[in-house]
Amino acid sequence: MDTRAESYQQGFHRRWGQLRRPRVRALAWLLDAPDLLDAADPQWAGRIASTGPASPELSAWLGALDHDPAALDEALGPRVYTRLGLYAEKLMAFYYQQHGRLVAHGLQVRANRNDTVGEFDFLLEHGPDALEHIELATKFYLLDGEGRSPQDWQLSALVGPNLADSLGLKMRKVFERQLELGAHPAAQALLPRPVARARALVKGWLFYPAGSWPAMRGIAAGHCRGFWCALAEVGQLAGDAFVVLPKLQWLAPFRSTSAAVMNRAQLHAELSAQFETNSTPVLVAVVREGPGYVEEVERGFIVPDDWRERAAARRMVT
User: Fold this and answer.
1) Model confidence at 208, in pLDDT bands (50, 70, 90)?
2) Which of 104, 155, 220, 224 is the most buried (most CB within 10 A)?
3) H or E segment at 242?
């Protein structure tokens, strides 16, 4: 008897395999994916928002949207999105608007003409006399595990693929600046009603070397996760079919009727050539092929062979 736990990808395909359109699948992931952060951890002070689990009514709504996506397509418009965070925001704004909760999206607050204080991601209905401020973060971080003992794991060890930020820095900014925006005098003069509650909605995937992960304070136990490895370690990966994921397909587990599937040698050659001119890590899905479909089994970042050295250099200055 096979008693292995169902992977996140398996569960997503089971729940949402009927959805065919990438935009609708991405929205389903935003609404149904487990939270990245543990809302019960005292360090978050009860300021973590959640969306799941999906109700039967939400499932029916997403199914209808997949059948007729005209309203979603109109909301997103003809723009070609290059920033994943903005794409996720537009999807969530559509959801909040369709469900009658959206008061404002992307509302900028300026102290004066040349001084922008900040921006509200979402202002939502919160009773007749108040608003709720939701700050959305959709993040992808790799655990930089070199030279650390288990008791030393901190959110700062979860770093962006390009080593430009960390989960610790991101959450400090969210809590110390962005969630405090409603209290700023310039914001209070702008808002139709006061902000009674401000919370962070944090979704994403965390990636671990060799696919193993430690328990970390503040991180939800059931978060979406994958692996990361250097290009030289591609030969050690499980599976023999791979798809490079474009950035706008980083949210939901990949599923398509067709895809540019590569074997291990082709993947290595493709990424080797790419890393000669661009050091940006690449997100790859390990896939399986079935009758008329290709779907993700697991996912991970492939990083250039010098990524560990660059991560170590970053630790020396942060």
Assistant:
1) very high
2) 224
3) strand 242-244
Taking only the tens place, the pLDDT of each residue in 68-112 is 999 999 999 998 899 999 999 999 999 999 999 999 999 999 888
Q: Are strands 195-209 and 224-230 parallel, antiparallel or unpaired?
A: parallel
- Please give the full DSSP string across 50-118, using - where no structure is assigned: ---SPPHHHHHHHHHHHH--HHHHHHH-S-----HHHHHHHHHHHHHHHTT-EEEEEEEEEEETTEEEE
Residue 6 confidence (pLDDT): 85
Read off φ and ψ for residue 221, nearest 5 degrees. -60, -35
Question: pLDDT per residue over 7-36, tens digit each?
Answer: 999 999 999 999 999 999 999 999 999 999
Alpha-carbon dihedral angle through residues 269, 85, 97, 120, given to the nearest 10 degrees: 180
String of DSSP letters for 9-68: HHHHHHHHTT---HHHHHHHHHHHSPPSB-TTSGGGTT-B----SPPHHHHHHHHHHHH-
At 266 the three-state DSSP class reads helix
**Residue carrying structure tokens 């700050």:** 135
Cβ–Cβ < 8 Å for 241, 263: yes
127: left (phi over 0), alpha (psi -120 to 50) or beta: left
The size of the chain, in residues, is: 318
Kindly report the three-state secondary structure assignment for every residue of 147-179: CCCHHHCCHHHEECCCCCCEHHHHHHHHHHCHH
Which stretch of DSSP H or E encloses residue 313?
A: helix 307-317
How far is 159 from 155, CA to CA, in rounded Å? 8
Q: Return the closest-CA partner of residue 94 out of 193, 161, 27, 156.
A: 27
> What gap in Å lies between CA 260 and CA 235, rounded to an integer?
19
Instruction: Report how far residue 48's alpha carbon sits from residue 203's, in angstroms, rounded to the nearest whole number.
Output: 11
Measured in whole angstroms, the distance separating CA 251 from the mean position of its chain's CA atoms is: 6
Cα–Cα distance, 274 to 281 (Å, whole number): 10
State the Cα–Cα distance between residues 162 and 314, nearest whole angstrom: 11
